[in-house]
Q: What sequence folds into this?
């Protein structure tokens, strides 16, 4: 539906920091069965123009993956900060990481990496999350660092951003 323009999106002011706090509560529930801890770090107040329901869906997809692809007794960290006219949300986890050869493909529909062999799902969550970010003139990036963290960053223009703001900071 996204590809054909059939996915409706509202355009209204959304208190994004509230959605981040809700996502942290959802992550606690999702992570409970594997004793994964969830930390809500600094959350700057920010308003974005968009669809509250779709933005919440994007965060749910990211937090669900952070719980699903984590290690027992692992950690999920959520934070958001304002950077000029953009909001930067981070959803990080201590899972096995994403092999560099697969990092460029994880946002493709139906792509399932080597770490997902015994997992549920069909490979749509991240592609849907990316589509939602792009529909809000933003993007999602991913990195696996040498400290054992996989970090998804969502860049979204704030409501105060000029209409000509690019989709990346």
A:
């Amino acid at each position: 539906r996204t590809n054909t323009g059939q996915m409706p999106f509202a355009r209204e002011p959304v208190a994004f920091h509230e959605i981040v706090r809700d996502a942290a509560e959802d992550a606690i529930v999702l992570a409970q069965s594997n004793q994964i801890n969830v930390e809500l770090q600094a959350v700057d107040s920010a308003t974005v123009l968009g669809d509250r329901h779709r933005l919440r869906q994007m965060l749910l997809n990211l937090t669900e993956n952070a719980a699903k692809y984590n290690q027992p007794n692992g950690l999920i960290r959520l934070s958001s900060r304002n950077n000029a006219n953009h909001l930067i949300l981070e959803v990080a986890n201590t899972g096995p990481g994403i092999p560099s050869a697969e990092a460029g493909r994880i946002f493709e529909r139906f792509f399932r990496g080597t770490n997902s062999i015994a997992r549920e799902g069909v490979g749509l969550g991240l592609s849907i999350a990316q589509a939602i970010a792009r529909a809000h003139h933003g993007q999602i990036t991913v990195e696996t660092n040498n400290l054992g963290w996989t970090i998804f960053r969502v860049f979204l223009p704030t409501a105060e951003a000029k209409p000509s703001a690019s989709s990346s900071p």
Summary: The CA atoms of residues 23 and 60 lie 6 Å apart. DSSP finds four helices and seven strands in the chain. The radius of gyration is 15 Å.
